Amino acid sequence: MWGQGNLAAGTIPVSVAYEDSIIFAFMDIQPINPGHVVIIPKKHITYLAELDEDTGARLFKVTMKIAKAVRNSGVRCEGVNLFLADGEAAGQDEFHVHMHVIPRYKGDNFTIKPDYSMKPTREDLNKLAQRIKSLL
After folding, report:
1. Domain residue ranges of the chain, discontinuous segments joined by +
2. Which residues are catalytic?
3. Which of 18, 62, 75, 112 could form a disulfide with 35 if both were Cys (CB 3.0 to 4.6 A apart)?
4. What's the CATH architecture for 6-134?
């Protein structure tokens, strides 16, 4: 378990990239590329919808700082992907909110291959936008 469990508590080995009272960032032990950092809230939060706005804002602020630091760290980094999987269907395999900062460069082996074949009508898009907006 991440957060106040094993990693942040120091009960298992971890290479810390950043820590404050709310957020903990560490090097991924199975990195996509060198410099791959994982950023988590210390408080155990399973899904993004459970994340309070202050913690979410802090998570993203730290993510931005880590991304900048990775770019300037000397690792090969021509770009950065941010990745957050929310729920099993999205590929979440550790059920604690976590953001990946992944340094990227042309020719690396990481791929994201979306299928853009779905072509909804403007009417369908407008209806869905209204439904989402009404729930905010």
Report:
1. 6-134
2. 98
3. 75
4. 2-Layer Sandwich (3.30)
